[in-house]
Amino acid sequence: MASGDVFTNMFGNTLLRIEGGVTKEIETSTLIKDGVIALYFSAHWCPPCRTFTPTLGDWYKKLTSGSLKDKLEIVFLSSDQSEEEFKDYYSSMPWCALPYSDREKKAELSKKFGIKGIPSLIFLNAQNGKIITREGREVVNEDPEGEQFPWKPKSISEVLSCLEDKLVDNKGGQYKLSEIRKDKYLALYISAHWCPPCKVFTPKLVEAYQKHQDKGFEVIFISFDRDEESFKDYFETMPWKSANYADANKLGPKIARRFGVKGIPTLVLMDKNLEVINQNARSFIEHDEKFENFPWSANICTTLNSEKDFAYLVSHPAVLYTVSDESKFNEAMQILDAVSKKFIANKPRDAIINFFCYVDDEKANSACKEFFHKGCGGVANQVFIIDPQEQMKNKEPITKLDVDSIYTQAMSYIEGELDMVKVD
């Protein structure tokens, strides 16, 4: 689909722009065809928005008057409470806006892009409308000159390179990341002393780390502590390495953003090539104490009928193919296996989805059965796409049970284009 078509479908035929102090309609098809189009979700009544908007305005004017002329555009999507408030707020903005009257389109876009708070700034590829990054606010603050344009997320190795010479143990010894992770799995433990679930989980992780060193894995503590004294007290309980407090305070948020961390404690497990294996290894420390299934690889295709399977289900996004009895299981698994192979062959590098087939009969595991009946409504012979961290599922279960239909929906989810609703 051509660029103009993508954004005309997204915004409608017309947008607003202020020219010479007068608000005019422009054709959506005239938006830039290359570079970045940013969606700015904001409102006048929101104090953080009013603080950020002037900063964004200065950044936009500076970049579009220089090297990024015709390479950067912003579209304001208003959450103001009246058209009068919208007009007053928009009068200070040098970019485009969705007409305030199109409330239905604004609500649709907020839902499509999963907006949970404002201000929010999402960067899209101007050629195809695909998301580049949801961290636009951080880009504005961290790249005032636009040197990192078009702001594609850095690779994991690039992000972790900031830790190379900054690791210490709790006795003050210094280490290189490349040396301690050599030929090992690497786990990033994102945690903080002030967090009660973290303090409950840390002793479990310490025990697992000390008991299973033969598995060849190393842990790096990424601290979200609020002061150096708390960091030192907490780090004293850990047998692994960390950046010191000053470095952790600066680098931790960047690392957490790269891995999409939404809460702590989080344990991200990577292989020896820094490919993410499991973004929620915490659940496996708790459910696989003997490390029988280590390294807990994601993008698996299996049945859903045990505590171990349930740990996988709640660790990552999942395609859940449900059948009402054993007679339909083999056909379902054949379809699901083909979907998973197609997904793995075509997915974005860091994308993870697990694939499960669940038989809703008397043999079903109790935790799995409860999730299916309470979370998915208990209607079998459908396919659900589950996002456990956000507690969401696809709004319309998939009833056309073939490889292409299920694969298309899975990729739509990965691309942020699938309608999702809260799990009941």
Automatic annotation (TrEMBL):
InterPro entries: Thioredoxin-like_fold, Thioredoxin-like_sf, Thioredoxin_domain. GO terms for molecular function: thioredoxin-disulfide reductase (NADPH) activity. GO terms for cellular component: nucleus. GO terms for biological process: negative regulation of protein ubiquitination; negative regulation of Wnt signaling pathway. Residues 1-161, 163-309 form the Thioredoxin domain. PROSITE patterns: THIOREDOXIN_2. This is Nucleoredoxin-like. The lineage of its organism: Eukaryota, Metazoa, Porifera, Hexactinellida, Hexasterophora.
